[in-house]
Write a structure and sequence with these properties.
This protein is α/β, with parallel strands linked by helices. Helix content is 54%, strand content 14%. A five-stranded mixed beta sheet has the order 1-5-3-4-2. The relative contact order is 0.08.
């Protein structure tokens, strides 16, 4: 009965899917035994929604597998590249076989890149999982931010914004993973240098269910200095202080204007290469 359900879902789209005797072939869709598939050691997803998994399991029980998982041959079996939720659901239903696209992937580096990119492109990962996946592509696959953006089809500024989330304190990262706050909240919080201030605003955001705009306003207040005190200490004209405030709010970082009688200079602070790239993107 289990195999009948499974076949119904796959063969409705691909009528001539071969049976197990053709499992040796690669770059093709096969039905393979679930027991032969090992989990993906590079799985970027940190949290699996049990409610969503239950819905998927019920759907598979009713309609079968519509979208094959992706695997590579590994030793005497297979290693999962993508489709862990489908594989978990099938295992819980005690279905013996699952449709899989078998890729010819030899190196662990290529395996890592394919796994991360496929999961990122599904767009159902939380922001921290996406950020960690981008970071793995940078560090483990020795890619630049520009190369990562090309691989995943995103703007470089988007990749940089996700990576900046990894600077947030762990409780805030966990909150992003649980869906208590979203990417917009995270971007507003990461613009604040002081970790204690980040935590203070985050706690307010979660407790009072603040919108992104409200968190941005609080963040700007933390970045913005006391203009009266600034004028007394530096003896800067008020319009210069206002200009600094506008630049800080726009760039999300500290900005200082050195004003003189015949001109001056603007100093923009950054704290990492990624931060510099983010600021440069604003001026593009």
């Amino acid at each position: 009965m289990a195999n009948k359900r499974l076949g119904k879902g796959l063969r409705a789209l691909i009528p001539d899917v071969p049976a197990e005797e053709s499992e040796e072939r690669v770059d093709s869709i096969r039905e393979i035994e679930v027991r032969k598939i090992r989990p993906n050691p590079l799985q970027p997803r940190g949290i699996f929604d049990e409610a969503a998994l239950t819905e998927l399991r019920n759907s598979i029980a009713e309609k079968g597998i519509i979208q094959p998982i992706t695997v590579r041959r590994k030793d005497d079996g297979f290693e999962l590249i993508s489709g862990e939720r489908r594989l978990r659901a099938v295992s819980q239903l005690e279905i013996e076989r699952i449709p899989a696209y078998v890729l010819d992937v030899e190196s662990d580096e290529e395996m890592l890149e394919l796994s991360l990119i496929e999961n990122i492109q599904r767009e159902d990962l939380n922001p921290i999982d996406v950020a960690r996946a981008y970071n793995k592509l940078l560090t483990d696959c020795n890619l630049t931010q520009e190369q990562v953006s090309q691989r995943v089809g995103k703007e470089r500024s988007t990749v940089a914004n996700f990576l900046r989330l990894l600077k947030l304190p762990d409780p805030i990262q966990q909150s992003l993973m649980r869906g208590e706050i979203n990417m917009g909240h995270g971007r507003a919080l990461v613009a604040i240098e002081d970790k204690s201030m980040q935590m203070e605003i985050w706690e307010k955001a979660v407790k009072s269910n603040l919108s992104v705009r409200e968190v941005e306003r609080l963040a700007k207040q933390k970045i913005k200095p006391d203009t009266k005190k600034q004028k007394i200490e530096d003896d800067k004209p008020y319009f210069i202080v206002e200009a600094e405030d506008k630049l800080r709010a726009s760039l999300g970082t500290q900005v200082h204007i050195k004003h003189g009688k015949k001109g001056g200079r603007i100093e923009i602070e950054y704290y990492s290469d990624d931060e510099l790239e983010r600021i440069l993107e604003i001026f593009d």
